Amino acid sequence: MQQRSEETRSKIISSAIKLFSTRGYNAASVDDICKDAGISKGAFYHHFKSKQALFLALLDGWLQTIDNAIEASKDKTVPETFTQMTEAFPYIFQTAGAGLPMFLEFWLQASRDDKIWQASIAPYRRYHKHFTSLIKKGVEEGSFVEVNPELASRMIISTAMGLLLQSLLDPKGAKWEKVARESTTMLVNSLLKK
Amino acid sequence: MQQRSEETRSKIISSAIKLFSTRGYNAASVDDICKDAGISKGAFYHHFKSKQALFLALLDGWLQTIDNAIEASKDKTVPETFTQMTEAFPYIFQTAGAGLPMFLEFWLQASRDDKIWQASIAPYRRYHKHFTSLIKKGVEEGSFVEVNPELASRMIISTAMGLLLQSLLDPKGAKWEKVARESTTMLVNSLLKK
DNA sequence: AAAAACAAACTGACTGGTCGGTTTTTATCG
DNA sequence: CGATAAAAACCGACCAGTCAGTTTGTTTTT
Fold it and tell me: What are residue A144's phi and psi, to 5 degrees?
């Protein structure tokens, strides 16, 4: 059985998430992560080829959860999908509080490191396309007003990203989940045909 | 005359902007900056108490330009102000290409470093208030439809931030200035009373 | 000559990654 | 089932390099 191995690996990952989130990628040293996980450096480098490889593994896992969420909404109608997204906001803001700096770190690293860029840009474009086709479908179905799907998709993603950023910078500046819910409602309402 | 001194200082600053933008705060070492600026480490630490102090100085300068832009639009009418903002987008996207990663870096550092957070949160809240009162004024004047100024302000800032982020992550993914212009137009149109 | 500006060698803490050796797990076979 | 050997997992001291910041001394300005 490789149960012990699995356990070590997951200990590394959760410690990495914790430390990358709070201190950032650079400030969280491999030694720190090992110490927090209660394992040795040898064990670390047995499981991950490098610090960057660990980072990439984290990115992968995170994208997986998004993909799963998208997959789960596959059979719903277009307006239903958006409603569901609205309902997901409180959860996102609640859980993302800690993970958000890391999310940002991913993007920042992505803009400079080609390997990481490749790993994060493809999913991003996929999500944009997903939204675009979703809106297009809504327009064709007749449930949405005539809009440029491409543009509307960019705007929705922008709003979401901007709200996440603002909530990161100033967590106590507003009731962010409320703002997010209302914003989404507003956006969707402006899309929906009355 | 302290002309030579001034020159050295500005050489440090422009090299810092250049290197922080391209490599990031951590990866750009003080030695690198000195080398790029063509000065010695002694000169660096003569002008700036620490690497962080330089970073803060950069942040200050950047906020200054925003404040100036706001100041310049003081006497215009509300719709005029927004129109002007729309027109400013191409310029922002054109010039910001290089500086944008640093903008993100500010955010990231701010979320972890209390000193930097203090320096950036106050201006941010000021800008939000500025927008809110601007929209409020527009509503009272009767040129805007009845909206929640607070919420509309958050949304406008979100959209702007999100677009900047997206353009940073995927510069070739879209004609961002065009998307930005259209998005702003769309937002403003939904605010304007017909 | 006093002070400000600058040069450059230096310090000490820290980092990612390696490596030889040890323990635990797993597969094999009598 | 139990002995055993190979393989996988793990340990932690160690290394070479890097970095922010210091110090000491020189040049330039006032």
Answer: -110, 155
Q: Do B170 and A105 touch (CB under 8 A)?
A: no
Residue-wise pLDDT for A2-56, tens only, equals 677 889 999 999 999 999 988 989 999 999 999 999 999 999 999 999 999 999 9
A52 touches strand C (CB under 7 A): yes
Look at residues A190, A112, A176, A88 and name the one whose alpha carbon lies nearest to residue A145.
Answer: A190
The pTM for the full model equals: 0.86
Half-sphere exposure for A5 (CA within 13 Å, toward CB): 6
Distance CA A165, CA B110 (A): 11
pLDDT of residue B110: 82
Question: Which residues in chain A come in under a pLDDT of 50?
Answer: none
CA–CA min distance A70, chain B (Å): 20
Which bases on strand C have an atom closer than 7 Å to a protein beta carbon? 4-10, 14-21, 24-26
